Amino acid sequence: MKKIGFVGVGDISGIYLKNITETFGEISIAGICDLVREKAERAAKKYNIKKIYNDMHELFADPEVDIVLNITRPYEHFGVSKAALEAGKNVYSEKPLAATLEEGRILKKIADEKGLLLGGAPDTFLGAGIQTCRKLIDDGFIGSPVGAAAFMICRGHESWHPDPEFYYKHGGGPMFDMGPYYLTALINLMGPVGAVMGMSKISYPERLITSERLNGTSITVEVPTYITGILQFKSGAVGTIFTTFDVKHTQGARLEVYGSKGTLSVPDPNGFGGPVSLLRLEEKEYKEMPLCFGYSDNSRALGLADMAKAMESGRRFRANSRQTLHVLEIMSAIETSSREGRLVEIESEYEPEAPMISPDRLGYLD
């Protein structure tokens, strides 16, 4: 059993803590730390965690920790992951891998040189919904994929998030925050991206927080919040991705894959389940397809469990750094294209890993 050391005990940590303690039988928690010690103490009490580290360096020095789980804020991912890797620890990071492409490349280089595993979120592509879509595509239900379209539309986080400012700062924005879910799903279904173009803007330079704790506080926006990207897949297919924090919409999430024999409606990649709908050329209406795999509920930490299983068995890790770096490069290239007005080629190598195998029992991986 591999033991996990938590760096950061923020909003997203709760579902990791719950699933590691209740669902995934091949990983456990060595201990936790947070800059705000009270957060760590509350989590330790709720989930019966025995060890609270004074800081991340004490965590890195603990020989019981097999994998460092980095769930700090996006602009902190690089510093924490780099320090953990240099201390000889395998690292699983929340998305994105880093706030810049150069930082991501540095992290991958360190991990490769030290023979350590590095990767991370999102792991929703391992869930029942997107794995079912992959099987339908691989089995030829839509013929040859010719294109795809992804949309993530919302009006921002300042009306509900207790501390939303980082969403509008370096490492944030709708593409770096939500784009990893959609791009990870797309490259697992469509294969690697070879080049991109993009356009973006800041629609509202100032945002007013209306959530309770910081109500009335103003945020100066530093990153684009209305972003459109065109993806040229190496297969020849063409895709689009649109992410925004500027627009109110009743159907804020949509992802579709278009093929020579039909269209596949992919479930929201922010979740693990369905529905999955297929429209074939010879049919007039979409048909909902049964989910073929496990993990349709919120299974956050599934990718972490897969990493631990790969360490035990020697097989390849699915949410690895080739994937997280490819996604980071695509997002960075869309930003570069928008700024410089040109097609940007993608340099990172990537191929989707093996699909999931339906488990004999949830919480224990192939």
Helix and strand topology:
Elements lengths: L1 E6 L5 H10 L4 E7 L3 H11 L8 H5 L6 E4 L6 H10 L3 E4 L7 H14 L3 E3 L7 H11 L6 E9 L19 H18 L2 E9 L4 E3 L9 E3 L5 E8 L4 E7 L8 E7 L2 E5 L9 E5 L6 E3 L12 H12 L7 H20 L3 E2 L21
Parallel strand pairs: 1-2, 1-3, 3-4, 4-5, 6-11
Antiparallel strand pairs: 6-12, 7-10, 7-16, 8-9, 10-11, 12-13, 13-14, 14-15
Task: Describe this structure as you would to a colleague.
- By secondary structure, the protein is an alpha/beta fold.
- The chain folds into two domains: 2-120, Rossmann fold, CATH 3.40.50; 125-289, Dihydrodipicolinate Reductase, domain 2 (2-Layer Sandwich).
- Helix content is 30%, strand content 23%.
- The chain has nine helices and 16 strands.
- It has helices at residues 13-22, 37-47, 56-60, 77-86, 101-114, 128-138, 173-190, 302-313, 321-340; strands spanning 2-7, 27-33, 67-70, 90-93, 118-120, 145-153, 193-201, 206-208, 218-220, 226-233, 238-244, 253-259, 262-266, 276-280, 287-289, 344-345.
- The strands form three sheets. Strands 15-14-13-12-6-11-10-7-16 form a nine-stranded mixed β-sheet. A five-stranded parallel β-sheet has the order 2-1-3-4-5, with helices on both faces.
- Strand 12 (253-259) and strand 13 form a beta hairpin.
- Helix 4 runs parallel beside helix 5 (101-114), helix 5 (101-114) packs antiparallel against helix 9 (321-340) and helix 7 crosses helix 9 (321-340).
- The model has no long low-confidence stretch (mean pLDDT 96).
